Amino acid sequence: MLIPRKAFGALTLALCVAGLFLFSNSILQWSVYVFGSHAPLVPYTTHIVLLQFKETATSFAVKEITSRFFGLKKSCVHPDTRRPYVLSITGGKDTSSEGLQDGLSHAFILRFTSKDDRDYYVKDDPAHKAFKEAAAAVVEKTVVVDFQEGVFTSA
Predict the structure, then answer these.
(1) Which of 37, 106, 137, 140 is an S-S bond match for 51, by CB 3.0 to 4.6 Å?
(2) Please, is 23 exposed, middle or buried when counting C-beta atoms within 10 Å of its C-beta (0-12, 13-18, 19+)?
(3) Alpha-carbon distance values, 45 to 53, 96, 117, 149 (Å)
(4) Where are the domains of the chain?
(5) Class of 45-148 per CATH?
(6) b (16+ CB within 10 A) / e for 128-152
(7) pLDDT for the residue numbered 42
(8) Taking CA 37 as the corner, what is the angle to CA 19 and CA 74, rounded to the nearest 5 degrees?
(9) Average pLDDT over residues 93-109
(10) What is the mean pLDDT of the chain?
(11) Where is each Stress-response A/B barrel domain found (predicted)?
(12) Does residue 127 carry a pLDDT above 90?
């Protein structure tokens, strides 16, 4: 026998695993096939906030407000679950060379599981209200756009 008896099981397992990799496009596809998709049935709601700071705002004040903005991910707590409900916050300072910013200098993107969570954040969340009050001292203009991923009509 060319293969020792003790190595036969390990070799068989290795060939099966190699075959799995070779005959599938990716492990992710297999995991979705076996375990199902974990994506929400309703698309995420994305909340984009664009800020223009006042000319009198110091770099320290801008840093303070942007840091507080990122802190909303932990400080915004859902009243029913008592847990943070903002899925993610990302953002940064504008670097575009197109010149179409109209004074807007900072962008933030927030993701919510649902429109209801976004609505609570916008209308009722006390941490968000406190942030807006603090930001009003240094923010000149705010532009907000919300959308659901992949939804382009209101059918």
Answers:
(1) 106
(2) exposed
(3) 26, 25, 9, 7
(4) 1-38, 45-148
(5) alpha beta
(6) beebeeebeebbeeeeeeeeeeeee
(7) 74
(8) 120
(9) 95
(10) 86
(11) 45-147
(12) yes
Q: Which of 90, 67, 85 is nearest to 125 (CA)?
A: 85
Query: Which amino acid makes up residue 48?
Result: I
Given a cut of 60, whether residue 131 has pLDDT beyond it is yes
* Distances 41 to 13, 113, 148 between C-alpha atoms, Å: 37, 10, 12
**Letter for the amino acid at 105?**
S
- Give the type of residue at 152: F
Give the residue-averaged pLDDT of 66-79: 96
